[in-house]
Amino acid sequence: GQQVMQIPQYQHVQEGEDFTTYCNSSTTLSNIQWYKQRPGGHPVFLIQLVKSGEVKKQKRLTFQFGEAKKNSSLHITATQTTDVGTYFCAGPLGIQGAQKLVFGQGTRLTINP
Amino acid sequence: IAGITQAPTSQILAAGRRMTLRCTQDMRHNAMYWYRQDLGLGLRLIHYSNTAGTTGKGEVPDGYSVSRANTDDFPLTLASAVPSQTSVYFCASSDSMWTSSYNEQFFGPGTRLTVL
Fold first, then answer.
1. Tens-digit pLDDT string for chain B (116 aa)
2. Cα(B49)–Cα(A112) distance, integer angstroms
3. Is A100's CB within 8 Å of B106's CB?
4. In this complex, is the C-beta atom of B110 within 8 Å of any C-beta atom belonging to chain A?
5. Which helix (H) or strand (E) holds A31?
6. In degrees, to the nearest 5, what angle opens at C-alpha B72 toward C-alphas B71 and B73?
């Protein structure tokens, strides 16, 4: 079945360093979503990418969708302690019709202040 | 109510017992979902409903059932709990499940369930 793989599983950085998490799908995605989950919290939607090669920015966060629409990345510039949490990518199962999201395993980011 | 609420917040349950996790949303979203979250496995879809009156199976439906009698409520029932169902359960909703829609999912605060 369709899989969404995310690497790395864990990442520890010093505050101020950059951070990147990568997401790869076994099949072409119609879109990809990114979520953030703070420790002890629930996933919160960050962004949705739809177009091939799309790049979107939210302050220090940069999201990319690959040209083939099978991979995506989230890059955080100059991490801050507020960035701590687990970042998930999610792609819809199927291309048309009612779609169910398949989540990657997540990348847990911890930061040394 | 604002957004999605879940009850209970946490529960310890004896194996073999029946349990219903409650989920209510006030956003008039058409689609609702139940996920379980286990360490290292991310979020896995248990069941979903793309509109009131209809439900469907997700990735890990065995041992769980759902109903969608109205737009707002989407309870998840464990008929006879087993220890492997120990997990954190999240309910979520979105305006739509259809490709053409912008279907951001909103998550509830979660229910931490321990089955002994």
1. 579 999 999 999 999 999 999 999 999 999 999 999 998 788 999 999 989 999 999 989 999 999 999 999 999 999 999 999 999 999 999 987 776 666 889 999 999 999 99
2. 41
3. no
4. yes
5. none
6. 105
